[in-house]
């Protein structure tokens, strides 16, 4: 004789089985790769289809921050991104006077829809999500990891990686910043690992850690706007898979191939390295740590 | 002369044995059905191969095991220190809450406020306040964040344990104190020799249960910066893009909890037996 609970139990087991199989996710398809292989095309003002014929319209946000721009004047050619933009324009065959700057907010630039610019430089990290809405050129900047601290800290005057050996350093968990500590600096004290950069920054303010590692754009922002007496100790050599900044173009823009080729040339002939040294390392006070 | 059960009694025994065998068989059958359903359901799912790769990858497990074990050692040390101090704090607060007499009102009020606040405050917030707030005061001799984080765990769990202890103390019948006092013991002596031993014994299972909970929560210390087992696993997950390190850490935590859980069960069983010894 079966107890009166038995049918319930068996029914429950059957339901469970049904639920487990019914709810099984359908295998999603592999995302189709968006190949941006540009066909061989001539890149000169006569053949490029820009917004205004013979002119190159470049967008960026207002205010345009140091050290990517200078004095909020993108058209003065100073600051890393302004300099890169003019170099790209030159490679495409535009005179300095053919460059027109236009103001586009960060979010508008990467939103789908018609664009008010031919190209846009505004510290855009290249991501697959953004690729769905816009085109990116080849990267013109690989984000570098940077040690920052406060004036009172013992590592404020550090000049080399060796000077950081005895420091208590911190970084956000799972980031290239943390990797930079363990792989490059290899300090004698275990690094502190935080949930996010805000926690790391607070620990730095409290003196719980001697310094923290963040990426260079964050370093500029934290030392300039967030930290009292914040100083950049220096940039670390490249490590891990860095974030990359790319020039934004309209989705499917006819210019993408030409702009990417111009950026590739700038990297290959060393122009980007020179500009980086001029605008990010020297004038922005983020020296290289070796 | 040996005792022989009556025929009626032998029938009863045989019947009971039959029922027992039937129960075992039924339990086995239903377990087999459910087990097969789960196995077929999970391993038959279209995503199973991928889940197996990203959660149960032996190579990743071996690669990150040393780092996770190193982190776990920190958890174990913290557990011992935090559990001991939290139990002491809880007992102290519970005794303060049960003090009689109008003179002690402020003490009782403070102890009550403490248990109310810290049982309500999420542990994560307490750790943030202690590990990031206290060093911000820039006082001389501020201890290491590790100690501040441990203090946060101790005061939070102290509040829970205090309530458990208080429940135990109040479960001891007032006549016990009356009897002790009539024998000439002072209130303190009565508490120490008569009430507390009985109280602690009665609430031992919930106390141990809270200790098991504390064992997992010491992992929240990683919010303050130190790398414990869970944080080490998190770093492994970020590096390998594979969730296996979390599974490894989870298994280690279960293994760590097993002895304590077993002790809890044993204590509970023993307490129940003693309680029912007369019946």
Automatic annotation (TrEMBL), chain A:
InterPro entries: Iontro_rcpt_C (IPR001320), Solute-binding_3/MltF_N (IPR001638). It comes from the Bacteria. SMART domains: PBPb, PBPe. This is Amino acid ABC transporter substrate-binding protein. Transmembrane segments: none annotated. One of its GO terms (cellular component) is membrane. The lineage of its organism: Bacteria, Bacillati, Actinomycetota, Actinomycetes, Micromonosporales. Residues 55-282 form the Ionotropic glutamate receptor C-terminal domain. Residues 1-24 form the signal peptide. It comes from Actinoplanes lobatus. Residues 55-283 form the Solute-binding protein family 3/N-terminal domain. GO terms for molecular function: ligand-gated monoatomic ion channel activity. Keywords: Signal.
UniProtKB/TrEMBL annotation, chain B:
The chain crosses the membrane at residues 20-42, 78-99, 120-139, 145-165, 243-263. GO terms for biological process: amino acid transport. Keywords: Amino-acid transport, Cell membrane, Membrane, Transmembrane, Transmembrane helix, Transport. The keyword Membrane applies. GO terms for molecular function: transmembrane transporter activity. Gene3D superfamilies: MetI-like. NCBIfam families: HEQRo_perm_3TM. This is ABC transporter permease.
């Amino acid at each position: 004789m079966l107890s009166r609970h038995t049918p319930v139990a068996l029914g429950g087991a059957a339901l469970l089985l049904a639920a487990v199989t019914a709810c099984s996710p359908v295998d999603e398809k592999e995302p189709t790769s968006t190949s941006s292989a540009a066909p061989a095309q001539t890149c000169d003002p006569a053949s490029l289809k820009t917004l205004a014929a013979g002119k190159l319209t470049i967008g960026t946000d207002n205010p345009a921050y140091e050290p990517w721009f200078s004095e909020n004047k993108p058209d003065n050619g100073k600051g890393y991104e302004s300099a890169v933009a003019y170099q790209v324009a030159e490679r495409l065959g535009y005179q300095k006077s053919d460059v027109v700057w236009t103001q586009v907010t960060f979010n508008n630039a990467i939103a789908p829809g018609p664009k008010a610019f031919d190209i846009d430089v505004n510290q855009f990290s290249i991501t697959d999500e953004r690729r769905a809405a816009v085109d990116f050129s080849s990267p013109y900047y690989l984000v570098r990891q940077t040690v920052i601290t406060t004036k009172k800290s013992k590592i404020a005057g550090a000049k080399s990686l060796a000077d950081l050996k005895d420091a208590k350093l911190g970084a956000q968990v799972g980031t290239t910043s943390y990797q930079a500590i363990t792989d490059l600096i290899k300090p004698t004290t275990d690094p502190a690992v935080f949930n996010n950069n805000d926690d790391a920054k607070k620990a730095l303010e409290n003196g719980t850690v001697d310094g923290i590692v963040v990426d260079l754009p964050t370093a500029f922002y934290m030392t300039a706007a967030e930290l009292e007496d914040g100083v950049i100790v220096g940039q670390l050599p490249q490590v891990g898979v860095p974030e990359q900044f790319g020039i934004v173009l309209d989705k499917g823009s006819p210019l993408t191939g030409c702009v990417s080729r111009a950026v590739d040339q700038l990297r290959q002939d060393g122009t980007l390295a020179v500009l980086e040294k001029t605008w990010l390392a020297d004038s922005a006070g983020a020296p290289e740590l070796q | 002369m040996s005792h022989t059960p009556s025929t009626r009694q032998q029938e009863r025994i045989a019947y009971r044995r039959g029922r027992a065998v039937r129960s075992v068989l039924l339990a086995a059958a239903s377990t087999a059905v459910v087990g097969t359903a789960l196995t077929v359901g999970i391993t038959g799912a279209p995503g199973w191969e991928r889940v197996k790769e990203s959660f149960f990858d032996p190579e990743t497990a071996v690669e990150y095991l040393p780092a996770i074990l190193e982190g776990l050692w920190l958890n174990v040390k913290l557990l011992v220190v935090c559990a001991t101090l939290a139990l002491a704090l809880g007992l102290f607060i519970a005794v303060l809450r049960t003090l009689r007499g109008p003179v002690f009102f402020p003490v009782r009020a403070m102890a009550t406020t403490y248990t109310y606040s810290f049982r309500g405050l999420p542990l994560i917030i307490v750790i943030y306040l202690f590990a990031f707030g206290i060093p911000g005061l820039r006082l001389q001799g501020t201890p290491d964040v590790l100690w501040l984080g441990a203090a946060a765990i101790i005061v939070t769990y102290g509040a829970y344990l205090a309530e458990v202890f208080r429940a135990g103390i109040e479960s001891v019948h007032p006549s016990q104190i009356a009897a002790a006092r009539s024998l000439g013991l002072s209130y303190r002596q009565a508490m120490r020799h008569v009430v507390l031993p009985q109280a602690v014994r009665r609430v031992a299972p919930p106390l141990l249960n809270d200790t098991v909970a504390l064992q997992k929560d010491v992992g929240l210390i990683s919010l303050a910066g130190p790398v414990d087992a869970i944080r080490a696993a998190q770093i492994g997950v970020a590096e390998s893009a594979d969730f296996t390190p979390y599974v490894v850490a989870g298994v280690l935590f279960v293994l760590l909890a097993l002895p304590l859980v077993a002790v809890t069960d044993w204590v509970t069983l023993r307490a129940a037996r003693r309680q029912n010894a007369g019946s």
